[in-house]
TrEMBL record:
SUPFAM superfamilies noted in UniProt: Winged helix' DNA-binding domain
Pfam families assigned to the protein according to its UniProt record, in alphabetical order: MarR (PF01047)
Entry keywords, A to Z: DNA-binding, Transcription, Transcription regulation
Species the sequence originates in: Ottowia pentelensis
Protein's recorded name: MarR family winged helix-turn-helix transcriptional regulator
UniProt keyword ATP-binding present: no
Length: 154
């Protein structure tokens, strides 16, 4: 147990915080899956994240995507094969490196990426709905500081 900042503060239940973070994540994933199913979108989490990343970036190398998801090359190839077979992305030679391919969303992939982003935003809005604007900002500030601390850890 550790003590949060502030004189006389009660000890922090680290296990309780970790459990609650895991529960929030699980509920976000459950509700997102439910919304995807309701809209007939039969993609797994990794496929959804890849399309959202491609929508945001436009084009990436397979290596960049693999690093973003901590996938090995075989796992990334399988993921890309599935999305390509559904007409959601295409592989094209990288003009700057003939040994590499650029992964680009197709028009259908971009359209689906828009729908996926809207679903994710709606789920998050629902999760944040009980919080005031000030509480939302406070939560974001806390999460940013936590993320910074984790990224600085050896």
């Amino acid at each position: 147990m550790s003590t949060p900042r502030g004189a006389g503060a009660a000890p922090l239940d680290v296990g309780g915080v970790a459990a609650r973070v895991a529960q929030v994540h699980a509920e976000l994933m459950r509700l997102t899956r439910k919304r995807l199913d309701e809209q007939g979108i039969a993609l797994n989490h990794s496929q959804v994240q890849a399309l959202k990343r491609l929508r945001a970036n436009g084009s990436m190398s397979a290596g960049e995507l693999a690093r973003a998801f901590d996938y090995d090359s075989g796992g990334m190839t399988r993921l890309l094969d599935r999305l390509e077979s559904q007409g959601l992305l295409q592989r094209q030679p990288d003009p700057g490196d003939r040994r590499s391919l650029r992964i680009q969303p197709t028009a259908a992939g971009l359209a689906l990426g828009e729908r996926l982003a809207a679903i994710g935003e709606a789920v998050l809005a629902q999760a944040l709905s009980p919080l005031s604007a000030r509480e939302r900002q406070g939560l974001l500030d806390c999460l940013e500081r936590m993320l910074a601390a984790l990224r600085q850890a050896p």
